[in-house]
């Protein structure tokens, strides 16, 4: 997706938090190089500002709830997990190598998933692994389908779980169903072009997005195609693709063209369409319209964020906009109760009232490992709301805890390599997969 052959451009996006005007991070380890051509993508979100009335409101969050699984990208089919249970003080439960990580020619694209007593990963060679959630012991490793001579293009896929099956995609365009106990392949299909993202699963179907901007609905039982729908083809965009969100019989998908489309799950009939693109933007990303952040469906509302400089809330049934903000980003927003939390691509963390779109707080995350020289750009993934704090992970290997009421820095920890994938919480355990494909569990 990010090579000339695949007609994609891989972007290096900056994002994250500062408190009291100083950078809490020390110099980190060198970042894994990002695949593809680098272009400047820093945006200016100077037209968003805090609303005093919203700031004065009490911050009430849902009570933290224990979740036993994180079954697909975003946690569940709707990409809305609320407030998760997690201890206040975490120690390292285990650290284990999970295959081959990111490099100059390949990049990890999918967070781990957690189901039962196992945590599953997929590496840049398209190998799915199962580890014990207790001690990290390897249970099995299974290679997704490939073509002889094209193994270098396997990277970029993802994994999901539903109804006793692991569903995996890879960069060669294969979708495979695996037995979660053994890793054995139950069936495999190749519905379209290369796949650069994780599948979503609901309603007895697997939903996958192809590099050439098509969405496919496949039968869980055998992988046969239920329906497919195309969107406009876009040459340039961010590496990866957003996983569709599914709820109330509707599938919401974001494309690299900036289109946000809603479909009926049973037949693919388009219900409504929107475009997340600003009419004017004072940045070098003006030519990019990609939606790389998963849409979120919560309580009949769709929250979506695009790289083209637009964040929106829409009614799920009609697609009518409830509010919009001039915000650009590629990390999936987090919805909890009356609030939406998001990291923008110019390094800001923002708290938004979900009903009005008014902003409670904006805090700048450190953008550089060496602030004075503005070198060592830091990119962030997340947030996740767990244990009464927002958790974001940085490309310098730092995991940061943030106060959801104020956006202020609370604490941090560091792992050995950079992190480009969002943290995962399940079973009161925090899982992080770094760019070297090292899996960390904290509890």
UniProtKB/TrEMBL annotation:
Residues 98-152, 156-363, 382-442 form the Pyrrolo-quinoline quinone repeat domain. SUPFAM superfamilies: Quinoprotein alcohol dehydrogenase-like. Pfam families: PQQ_2. InterPro entries: PQQ_b-propeller_rpt, PQQ_rpt_dom, Quinoprotein_ADH-like_sf, WD40/YVTN_repeat-like_dom_sf. This is Outer membrane beta-barrel assembly protein BamB.
